[in-house]
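look at this fold:
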Amino acid sequence: MTTVTSYTPEEVATILKISRFTVYEMIKRGDLTAYRIGRKMRIEAPDLEAYIKKSKGQFPSQQHSQPAAITPPASQEALIICGQDIILDILTRHLEKEMPQIRFLRNYIGSIDGLLALYRGAANVVTTHLWDSDTDTYNVPYVRRLLPGHKTLIINLVYRIEGFYVAKGNPKNIAAWQDLARQDVRFVNRERGSGARVLVDEQLRIQHIDHAEVNGYNHEEASHLAVASCVARGDADVGVGIEKAALQVSAIDFIPLKKERYDLVIRKEDAERPQFKAMLSILQSQAFRNEIAGMGGYDLSQTGKIMAET
């Protein structure tokens, strides 16, 4: 087997002459491809080279058509899990403990990019929280559209509350989607393809609000926590994200808007493989539920339940 050189974020920081915190932000944004082996984050040399070439304007062929995805292909020897919630790190740790002979890799990409990675065979397990306004349902319509002809299982991970992050005391009295169009309100958005971004865009469409009317629509952050932090430090008046992140940032208030279903999606043909059986067993275990429940901000009433087949 060909050996590929890989680097830690600290080594990449030294090579690029930037801080390691900047490297982690690049990974979160999807600018730099990375994966986990255990608790260690690694960046492979070809991915670092591709990033450097892209920064210089030398785009590798067909790069524009690929979503942010980790280099190792999905295989029998590895299980690639896509998604950004910390729950997935905990799930990965449980899997590593139960099956130490298997590589469990993490890729921090949003819902749409994750589904596309599953479609292309670049991922095994992806998370999604995509609201469809036509049916007022989560995930199933998007799975059917983005994985045509592929049989899948949609398994609930948790339910979460999406809402507005606002400054402490809500000084601008922001309470509804229509408030995003007010001239005195500065908005901070999520990146394209994320579930929160889809929710925002769907709600703006329903309210007949043009993107150009939203002050800050093009101001993007790559995570719920980054959006909450942006509001906390006064760089924006409102952002959209999950309640869990609001619990981690003391200088903001949270205005609940919608209960969302946060699901795992796998190919149905994979369901009988040992890695996937172990994953479902962990999701349904009391130990896993207790650990997540202790964190707060999640509804585990349907965790591990198959919600749909496509």
Summary: The CA atoms of residues 171 and 237 lie 9 Å apart. The domain at 6-153+263-309 is CATH 3.40.190.10 (D-Maltodextrin-Binding Protein; domain 2). The longest strand covers residues 152-167.
